[in-house]
Amino acid sequence: MKKTSTTSKKSWWSKLLVLFCLWACMPGAALGAGGDAPRAVIERTSSAVLAVLADKSSSADEKRRKIQDIVYVEVDFETLSRLVLAQNWKRLSPEQQKEFVEQFRQHLALTYGRNVDNYHNEKVSIVGDREEKGGDWTVQSKILRGGADDISLDYRLRQKDGQWRIIDFIIEGVSLVSNFRSQFQEIIANGGPEHLLELLRQKNATGEPLKS
Amino acid sequence: MIRARGVFSFLAAVMGSALLMSCAAENFRPDYDPLEPMNRKIFWFNDKVDTYVLEPVATGWDWVMPHVVQRSISNFFTNLRFPINTINDLLQGKLKHSAVDVGRFAVNTTVGVLGFFDPATGWGLEAHQEDFGQTLGVWGVPPGAYLVLPIVGPSNPRDAVGLAGDYAMSITPFFVNQFILLGTRVVDVINTRSLLLQPVRDAKAASLDYYTFVRNAYFQRRKALISDANEGFKPSNEEDIYHVEEELVE
């Protein structure tokens, strides 16, 4: 008895949250290609992702798909991939580069999509933003899990064609780009670009398949 | 209650760090790992110990223990780290943080029932994660080559010296039997691991080379912990990972 009442209360809240997010997204959508400031991009993205996570009515696969749709728009995977491969980027043929971007994107989607069911109503707060040397922008956020367990998550954004898009995620001071760069440098140094692509293909093939 | 013997190991740690400063590797970079073949072997060994001993035990622990209890045990041991946090705050010249950490210990030990609960955070007394390795970093000691220690895990000469310093600063109730102390240490390790089951699984799934993943994450995390303590501190020859074009000129 008690349980049903709390669940319905929760779903009511999540509906309100979704409505609120839709409302919050509207100015951004209306501005269209005009482009939001970096901070607004992160605000819009994180509230849209949270709304999907909190939506009790969709299955884990639906949630993954919806989050992917959001993330694919807001993240500049091409730039991210170039930064990750760094000096090694030019060692790949144009076809290999294309395949790398796609495989790497899939790898990130698979590994980070695993946790859609582990959402426990964490909230996100944007705590600050600053311009970086060279024109990039960093937006700092905190995933609120109650005091000492808060996780700091920073986004680095770069403007391309008037649009600010995410090029790196920094979790508790650990940059995703820097981390994958180290790994891929090691792999390419030992086995060349084809070895890296082969490893990515293998990883993605054994990863949890995404049902449409 | 800081043991007298601790003073000697603390002195040893300071002397050790002076030694490190004098022979600081000049060509130090983020993935500086000249001992990689040996490190990989020890890493492999640690991973096996974790996979076949620690992780199964922690999984059982996680299954038996309610999450609230796991959190409380974690709080208890974190609270006992109070002298380490406070002394290192002071050594880094952060007087305000040290006062906050003393306040945290006072509140959590009393109102928080021996540290099992953490009301202090809710009252705005935020925790600071400090250790002697970080202090050495703030003092300008470079980390040196990456080092994987048996059982302990990722480290470097600076942080290994730091561990000795932390040991000297830690609370060791002299009246408690050695075996009971060992027992509580085991509980601490198992409980901590039980709270990390999912993150470790995720990390293994997300990485293509787990060894390099951990090495890089350790380096970045330590750097972040040190620089938050000392605004503006940056390793001298830090590479700019966001501007590849310049790097392409070899």
What does this entry look like structurally?
- The complex is a heterodimer of chains A (212) and B (250).
- With 212 residues, chain A is α+β, with helices and mostly antiparallel strands.
- Chain A has a single domain, classed as Tgt2/MlaC (Nuclear Transport Factor 2, Chain: A).
- Chain A is built from 6 helices and 5 strands; from the N terminus they run αααααβββββα.
- Chain A has helices at residues 2-31, 38-54, 60-74, 77-85, 94-113, 176-206, and strands at residues 123-131, 137-144, 151-160, 163-171, 174-175.
- In chain A, strands 1-2-3-4-5 form a 5-stranded antiparallel β-sheet.
- Chain A is globular, with a radius of gyration of 19 Å.
- The two termini of chain A are 35 Å apart.
- Chain B has helices spanning 5-22, 36-64, 67-80, 82-91, 95-110, 119-122, 132-138, 157-169, 178-194, 197-206, 210-229, 244-248, and strands spanning 147-149, 153-155.
- Chain B is globular, with a radius of gyration of 19 Å.
- Chain B has 250 residues and is mainly alpha-helical.
- In chain B, helix 2 crosses helix 9.
- The model of chain B is unreliable at 22-27 and 229-237 (pLDDT under 50).
- A two-stranded antiparallel ribbon of chain B has the order 1-2.
- Chain B has one domain (4-23, 34-97, 126-249).
- The longest helix of chain B has 29 residues, at 36-64.
- Chain B contains 12 helices and 2 strands.
Enumerate the spans of chain B where pLDDT stays under 50 for 5 or more consecutive residues: 22-27, 229-237
How many H/I helical runs of chain B? 12
Q: How many domains, in number, for the residues of chain B?
A: 1
Q: What portion of residues of chain B belong to β-strands?
A: under 5%
The number of domains of chain A is 1
* Low-confidence segments of chain A: 1-7, 25-33
Q: What is the end-to-end distance of chain B?
A: 57 Å
Query: Biggest sheet of chain A, open or closed, and with what strands and sense?
Result: 5 strands, antiparallel
The whole-angstrom Rg of chain A is 19 Å
Major beta sheet, strand line-up of chain A: 1-2-3-4-5
**Largest interface, by Cβ-Cβ below 8 angstroms: which chains and how many residues each?**
A-B, 40 and 34 residues
Judged by helices, strands and strand pairing, the structural class of chain A is: alpha+beta
CATH class of chain A: Alpha Beta
Structural class of chain B: mainly alpha
CATH topology of chain A: Nuclear Transport Factor 2, Chain: A
Report the helical percentage of chain A: 55-70%
